Write a sequence for this structure.
């Protein structure tokens, strides 16, 4: 896992719109970069819909939301359409960005070990990590993000 004040690892990922997205596309904006395991699963849907519901408030603060998972662009498009998500989802199909951010980890479910995304969020501005939320709880996470953004904005 990375540390606060560290340089954010670069990303160069395709969005659901087929555009290549980089952190540098959002100069002078807060970036809420959230990593989640899989489109259209219960926890991931709760988290995404809560970000959708807080979207206006988050953008008013001067932030953008970018979701990242190993799912491909087609799955992201379906997920966005189904839940009317107003922010881009990025396809990290080779998991390189997840690995760079330290969120591609060994998980354990019912005694079975496997590799997957640890739900985590990074708030970044101008290439610097300002806040990290490790091991996020989907239900209350968007409200936590709003509170931190308000504090960071000052």
């Amino acid at each position: 896992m990375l540390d606060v004040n560290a340089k954010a690892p670069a990303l160069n990922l395709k969005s659901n719109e087929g555009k290549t997205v980089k952190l540098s596309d959002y100069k002078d904006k807060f970036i809420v970069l959230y990593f989640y395991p899989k489109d259209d699963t219960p926890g991931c849907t709760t988290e995404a819909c809560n970000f959708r519901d807080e979207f206006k408030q988050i953008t008013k603060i001067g932030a953008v939301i970018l979701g990242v998972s190993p799912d491909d662009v087609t799955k992201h498009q379906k997920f966005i359409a189904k839940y009317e998500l107003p922010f881009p989802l990025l396809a990290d199909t080779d998991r390189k960005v997840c690995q760079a951010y330290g969120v591609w980890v060994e998980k354990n479910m019912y005694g079975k070990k496997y590799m997957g995304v640890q739900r985590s969020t990074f708030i970044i501005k101008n290439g610097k990590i300002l806040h990290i939320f490790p091991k996020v709880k989907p239900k209350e996470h968007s409200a936590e993000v709003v509170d931190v953004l308000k504090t960071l904005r000052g």
About this structure: The first helix runs from residue 42 to 61. Helices lie at 42-61, 73-83, 96-100, 138-153.
